[in-house]
Specification:
Blueprint lengths: L1 E4 L14 H9 L3 E5 L10 H6 L3 E3 L2 H7 L2 E3 L6 H6 L5 E4 L7 H10 L2 E4 L14 H20 L7 E3 L2 E3 L3 E5 L3 H12 L3 E5 L6 H6 L3 E2 L23 H14 L5 E4 L14 H6 L5 E4 L16 E3 L5 E3 L9 H19 L14 H6 E4 L2 E2 L24 H36 L2 H22 L10 H18 L5 H31 L4
Parallel strand pairs: 1-2, 1-4, 2-3, 4-5, 5-6, 9-10, 9-12, 10-11, 12-13, 13-15
Antiparallel strand pairs: 6-16, 7-8, 14-15, 16-17
Helix pairs in contact: 1-11, 6-7, 6-11, 15-16
Length: 523
């Protein structure tokens, strides 16, 4: 079978669904590859690069649709491309099935199979095919770069001979993939970064990246992320009011606002109102990543950059991934390649469209002349972490009772051990000579002391305690050397074994200690 990628017809789109590297990987799966002439030019991939990778270059999109069994695209197909589909052909693309009834009906009428990349379920096994996350990651990074391009100061604070420059204060609304990418970029540039999300479980992720999570003094149960595909769910009106009140409090303080809040198959929630924009300082910047769905900011104009009367710049571009076309194409083509790997389990260049597979079924929106959207929920939901179980707080009396019980249990164990040891020692004394018993009792006591001192130490602490274990081993080896000249063969044997084992411990300890100290020395 042949897989091909046409040139994107959407105005300003620079990405391409197949790169020379991804084509080589697809060929290893048994597929022939084709590309429309010039499809990769805007992303930096020339026709010659494709030819060198063994890809057939076709002159027109119509020729590509006619020649290929599988067509991979980036943007939703337009009416002309939908007409080019044919029976049993497979289209892999962003498709927007929730708001693309016309496209769904066209695919059904043509008998084509359509895999919508935005419908890949967010389960662990499907992360390598999650094109939404790949593109959101680039959009979050690029949003900070665009904000810096329109911001009149440094991100990081500086103290110079010419004066002090305060660090920029950045607020990221929404801590999904795009939000976390924006947080990471902002903190790495030295800005003071604040982040907000309606899902409190992401607070640890935000704080681990060096940002400060903005908490609301409001209690509301949030739906498990696993039930909403990892996205935020709709909040109550009371929660929304508390949220807006917090943003109004932050608006005069922040220099840059990056909004990323989206709920699947809905218009973007309005989170940054007109009065918040008016409260911001002149020179501040808002980058609205939800502009394509109406925008999180009231004043956002899709695909435009505007400056308000009070000097706030609002960026409403919807092509952030396309502005980094080479990187975006590489990631998206890799997502496509992983999807093809799942569709080709035998690596024989033939698609096996297994509708029992959670990932393939979830992403398929049209199959064998039927519309299969919306998909059933995946059998495996592994997105949201389970809430930590909080141990009940014990009262003082309960703690005391637990301590007494633990002490009694430890005492019983110690008494039992001593009783059994004493009985065995008496049994040996009944048959062994007095000279042997003198040494044997010293040996037993040494073993007991070693057990008490070393055995109970956690394995992770053995290396820091190497000096202590070396000291104990030195005592043991001295005792063994004193006994090695004994006239008893058994004593000589035990002494030799003691010298051998403690020698290994001592020299090994010094070697480990030396290596540890070398880690802290300058080269």
């Amino acid at each position: 079978m042949k897989i091909g990628a046409p040139k994107e017809t959407f105005a300003g789109e620079a990405r391409v669904a197949m790169t020379p590297d991804s084509a080589k990987q697809l060929q290893k799966l048994g597929y022939d590859c084709a590309i429309e002439s010039g499809a990769g030019e805007a992303a930096g991939f020339s026709n010659a690069m494709y030819k060198d990778a063994g890809v057939e270059v076709l002159k027109t999109g119509a020729a590509l649709f006619k020649a290929c069994d599988i067509v991979a695209k980036v943007r939703q197909p337009d009416a002309t491309e939908l007409k080019r589909l044919r029976k049993d052909q497979t289209l892999i693309s962003f498709f927007n099935p929730a708001a693309n009834d016309e496209g769904m009906e066209a695919a059904k009428a043509k008998g084509a199979n359509v895999i919508a990349m935005e419908m890949v379920p967010r389960i662990s096994r499907a992360q390598k095919m999650d094109a939404l996350s790949s593109m959101a990651n680039i959009a979050g990074y690029r949003a900070v770069i665009e904000a810096g391009n329109n911001f009149g100061r440094f991100f990081t604070g500086q103290i110079t001979a010419a004066g002090k420059v305060p660090p920029a204060k950045v607020l990221v609304v929404g801590a999904g993939v795009a939000g976390l990418a924006a947080i990471g970029t902002s903190t790495s540039l030295g800005a003071i970064t604040l982040a907000f999300d309606v899902r409190p479980e992401v607070a640890e992720q935000v704080e681990s990246m060096g940002a400060e999570f903005v908490y609301l003094d409001f209690e509301e149960e949030q739906a498990d992320g696993a039930t909403s595909g990892g996205y935020a769910s709709v909040s109550s009106p009371e929660f929304r009011e508390a949220q807006l009140a917090k943003f109004r409090e932050l608006a005069p303080e922040v220099d840059i606002v990056i909004t990323t809040a989206l709920i699947p198959n809905r218009e973007a929630p309005e989170l940054w109102t007109e009065d918040m924009v008016q409260a911001m300082k002149p020179g501040s910047v808002i980058v609205d990543l939800a502009a394509e769905k109406g925008g999180n900011c009231k004043l956002t104009v899709m695909d435009e950059k505007i400056v308000t009367d009070n000097g706030v710049t609002i960026v409403g571009y919807t092509d952030f991934p396309s502005r980094m076309a080479a990187q975006a194409s590489t990631l998206y083509a890799t997502n496509i390649r992983h999807m093809m790997t799942d569709l080709t389990p035998e690596k024989d260049g033939q698609i096996n469209h297994d509708m029992e597979d959670d990932v393939i079924r979830g992403a398929t929106v049209a199959f064998e002349g039927e519309i299969t959207f919306p998909p059933p929920p995946p059998k495996v939901q592994a997105i949201a972490a389970k809430p930590k179980e909080v141990a009940p707080e014990l009262t003082a009396e309960e703690k005391r009772a637990a301590e007494v019980e633990a002490f009694k249990k430890e005492t019983r164990n110690q008494v039992t051990l001593l009783a059994v040891g004493g009985a065995l020692l008496l049994a040996v004394g009944l048959v062994a000579p007095a000279s042997f018993m003198q040494h044997f009792i010293v040996f037993v006591l040494s073993v007991f002391i070693g057990f008490q001192v070393i055995w109970g130490v956690a394995h992770s602490l053995h290396t820091p305690l190497m000096a202590v274990t070396n000291a104990i081993s030195s005592i043991v080896i001295l005792g063994a050397l004193m006994q090695i000249g004994s006239g008893s063969f058994l004593v000589i044997l035990l002494s030799a074994l003691a010298v051998f084992m403690t020698g290994i411990n001592i020299f090994g300890g010094f070697m480990v200690t030396r290596r540890m100290l070398a880690m802290f020395q300058k080269s």
